[in-house]
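Hi everyone,

Forwarding the result from last night's run.
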Amino acid sequence: MDRNERVAEMEAILNKHTDAVKAFKKALAAFDEAQIAYDKLDAYYSSKDWFDDVDAYDKGEITVDCGVLTEDAVYDLIGDNYEMAKEMIRVANSIFQKH
């Protein structure tokens, strides 16, 4: 590989990673903000209100979209949220170990 090819390759890596960092910062900020609402959902999912709402749905008293009353939707989100946090730690540790 000659110098021009090497520099062109490194320039492409710089530009691609710069874009990735910008996109991740934006996504991370949105994710962090969403965690506030997520915490409310997580608390609701294990509350008496949730069980009461499921009973009301079963009786036909709930007429709005109610995927939140299925066990799988919220449970899966809780698992996905946890796995996302673990993945962020793994990536962060990899970066820290290199510096």
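The chain has a mean pLDDT of 95.

Cheers,
N.
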